UniProtKB/TrEMBL annotation, chain B:
Organism per entry: Daphnia magna
Endpoints of the signal sequence: none
Keywords: Transferase
UniProt cross-references to PANTHER family, sorted A to Z: ALL TRANS-POLYPRENYL-DIPHOSPHATE SYNTHASE PDSS2 (PTHR12001:SF55), GERANYLGERANYL PYROPHOSPHATE SYNTHASE (PTHR12001)
Lineage top rank: taxon: Eukaryota
InterPro entries, sorted: Isoprenoid_synthase_dom_sf, Polyprenyl_synt
Family listed: Belongs to the FPP/GGPP synthase family.
A Pfam family it matches: polyprenyl_synt
RNA-binding in keyword set: no
Protein name from the UniProt record: Decaprenyl-diphosphate synthase subunit 2
Length: 390, 332
């Protein structure tokens, strides 16, 4: 029996290094997860019995599988950026460098990573192995990354940002006008790629995402919320600006895999909760990390007049923050005062707790899927997301 | 030689509106650009009646929601700063000379011109497409109005911010509208138009070894204006299932766009005090004013004639007649 299992394992290792066998690999993987890891149902039972899924437990269980799957994901990610650069390359010589500027593969690539891992987890759950469908799922990741990046370029002009990802922002290098227009170019190409997927439901989801991105940015202009409304306004804005990308992206890959509406909803909710957690951690890091770690200046949100979760929580303990929030920290010393008070309050701690709750909910949704190595990667990813430093 | 006033009356006879002979005679004494404006206005007004075009097709209020109303507050602060966004916004709201929202009108006319039976009406999807065309064009105008700022300037920075957000809002809204059409071919065509108008900004009108300056101008204008109109015409024929006319519609859209833009350049060249910086001076360097005008009028007329020739493939009805009138009105 052990010889058989050993040869199976060898076959899997061999297959993982050969692209042509990847289709077979994903089938074998399913067997592997059933044979070699502890019966996944036990993990679920633990979560369901305690009522509060602990992501640390489920995350560390995946340590053995990590190297093989990691390599496959990294290969997919590298080819994703190559594909994006190629689709943006066939154009005017002066446009191409701007269009390709942020697709050098130096970013965190968290959105494509989540999208593709979830896609593969859903494929395992539904027993879907069509390579044509998998290619379309990759295109979803491509489209979402392109639209996300274009929105970053536009945001940098709006926020007068001078650096991003440890290099000068596009608007500093080429001027505001060309950056904005290059962003439009990227969006145009992204929509063309999306249309080529031949899926009306996916296109509709992508358009909802685009609309939410813009409306989220517009919501940031609005300083009219009362103290009671502020947190709800902040959460809605956070969904639109950040979580919607991941949520609709996850739902889209599930649609392509043939998911029914309840599975689509699970995919959407997983992406949504993960996205919310991601932004909350981002908001904490703005107060905690140095600019060298972030790749962009710290305390940026305060300087832009934005009151994020740490500030809103801090205002409960220090009501003197409320007028500062109201006037968007535009008086001299406001930014410094707010920064100091946030650190003195429990705002950062409470924000991390909220992020943790979102992560736990994401994990609960993820647990509905059949066990797979990709599901394990996502558990790990969720855990790492909560504890990241940049 | 037929006198100018007779020529005008002959050309405008089938517009249906009666021009008092005295008025048309006195009009002929003015510079021809005024004649152009008159015949253009008449052609467009008549065309609007043919397709039941609402007067204010795309007002900011019609796409308004809570979020966009914030923009209106900031726009007021921009008045007097000289940011291009104010001009664009003003033109969106107040349109006196019928040069606005003509693209939507062209799409509706094309939709109707292709209908072979008199009972057929423009489809709701085609009207949505006309609106999408206007949205994309407006987003293009707004985004290309962003200014390069090297030194801090609070007002112009605010203007840029508003321009980016407004343009993005219109683009997003056009995407949402596109999804309602349930036709991914049309989506692809409009997306190409968006990539094309963006690419146009990066083209220099300098002669190279393969292309003359005029060729480069054509390329740039095709990308900047032609692509959207051509693809919109093509798309509306796809939506109307007028398969045999799709290529003609696309070609017509391109020719009319180039003719229209050529005419805009001529009119602005004639009325511009500082001609040295004008694009036509760069296309025809060291050429006397009269010759520049004549040369470019020849370019324009070639496109008008091409458009009129393509129109013969369409059924003869009010809409195709109106399209012909609009094309001919450009020849002044």
């Amino acid at each position: 029996m052990t010889a058989f299992l050993a040869s199976q394992r060898f076959a899997i290792l061999f297959a993982s290094h050969n692209r042509q066998l990847c289709r077979a690999y994903s089938g074998l993987q399913k067997c592997e997860s059933l044979l070699f890891t502890s019966p996944p149902s036990l993990l679920f039972q633990h979560q369901i019995q305690t009522g509060v899924p602990n992501i640390t437990n489920v995350a560390t269980a995946s340590a053995n599988d990590k190297p093989d799957n990691d390599a496959m994901i990294r290969r997919d990610l590298a080819s994703l950026y190559e594909d994006i650069r190629e689709s943006l390359g066939k154009s005017q010589a002066t446009l191409t460098p701007i269009a390709q500027y942020y697709f050098d593969g130096e970013g965190k690539a968290i959105r494509p990573m989540i999208t593709m891992c979830l896609a593969k987890a859903i494929n395992c759950h539904l027993n879907q192995i069509s390579s044509e469908m998998i290619e379309k799922q990759k295109k979803v990741a491509q489209v979402v990354e392109m639209i996300h990046t274009a929105s970053l370029v536009h945001d940098d002009v709006i926020d007068l940002a001078e650096s991003r990802r440890n290099k000068s922002s596009a608007n500093v290098v080429w001027g505001q006008k060309r950056s904005i227009v290059a962003g439009d170019f990227v969006v145009g190409r992204a929509i063309e790629i999306c249309a080529a997927m031949q899926s009306d439901p996916v296109f509709e989801l992508i358009t909802k995402m685009v609309a939410d991105l813009v409306n989220g940015e517009l919501m940031q202009l609005d300083g009219s919320a009362t103290e009671n409304e502020r947190f709800a306004h902040y959460l809605e804005k956070t969904f639109k600006k950040t979580a919607s990308l991941i949520a609709y992206s996850c739902q889209s890959v599930s649609v392509l895999a043939g998911a029914d509406s309840s599975l689509q909803n699970i995919a959407f909710q997983f992406g949504r909760q993960l996205g919310m957690a991601f932004q909350l951690v981002d908001d904490v890091l703005d107060f905690v990390a140095t600019s060298a770690q972030l790749g962009k200046p710290a305390a940026a949100d305060l300087r832009l007049g934005l009151a994020t979760a740490p500030v809103l929580f801090a205002a409960h303990k220090f009501p003197e923050l409320n007028p500062l929030i109201q006037r968007r920290f535009n008086q001299p010393g406001d930014v410094e005062t707010a920064f100091y008070l946030v650190h003195r309050s429990d705002g950062l701690q409470r924000t991390k707790e909220l992020a943790s709750q979102y992560c736990d909910d994401a994990v609960t949704k993820l647990a509905h899927l059949s066990p797979s190595s990709y599901q394990q990667i996502l558990y790990t990813l969720t855990h790492e997301l909560l504890n990241r430093m940049k | 030689m037929v006198s100018r006033s007779c020529l005008i009356r002959w050309k405008t006879r089938h517009l249906g509106s009666s021009i008092h002979p005295a008025v048309s005679f006195s009009r002929s004494l003015f510079a021809s650009s005024q004649v152009y404006q008159t015949s253009w206005v008449q052609a467009v007004s008549n065309a609007e009646k043919v397709v039941g075009f609402p007067t204010s097709f795309l007002s900011l209020r019609s796409v308004a929601n809570d979020e966009i109303s914030n923009i209106a507050v900031y726009l007021k602060k921009l008045i007097g700063t000289g940011h291009p966004l104010i001009t664009t916004a003003k033109n969106l709201v107040y349109s006196n000379d019928k040069t606005h929202q003509t693209r939507g009108l062209l799409v509706l006319l094309m939709s109707k011109a292709a209908k072979r039976e008199s009972g057929q009406d423009i489809l709701p999807e085609q009207r949505t497409l006309a609106e999408i065309t206007e949205l994309v064009h407006t987003a293009h105008l707004i985004h290309t109005g962003v200014i390069n700022l090297n030194t801090p300037n609070a007002n112009l920075e605010m203007g840029n911010k508003m321009a980016v957000l407004c343009g993005d809002f219109f683009l997003a809204h056009s995407c949402v509208q596109l999804a309602t059409l349930q036709n991914l071919k049309v989506v692809e065509l409009i997306a190409q138009a968006i990539s094309d108008y963006s690419t146009a900004e990066f083209i220099d009108i300098i002669a190279s070894e393969n292309d003359s300056a005029l060729d480069r101008w054509s390329q740039q204008m095709t990308l900047r204006y032609g692509s959207l109109i051509a693809h919109a015409c093509q798309s509306t024929l796809i939506l109307g299932n007028n398969v045999e006319l799709i290529e003609s519609g696309k070609s017509f859209g391109l020719e009319i766009a180039l003719a229209w833009q050529a005419n805009i350049e001529i009119q602005s060249f004639k009325s511009n005090a500082n001609r040295a910086d004008h694009v036509l001076s760069k296309l025809f360097p060291e050429t006397p004013f009269v010759d520049v005008v004549a040369n470019f009028q020849a370019v324009r007329d070639r496109h008008v004639n091409a458009a009129l020739k393509i129109l013969t493939a369409f059924p003869q009805n009010d809409a195709s007649l109106a399209l012909g009138n609009i094309a001919r009105a450009l020849k002044y």
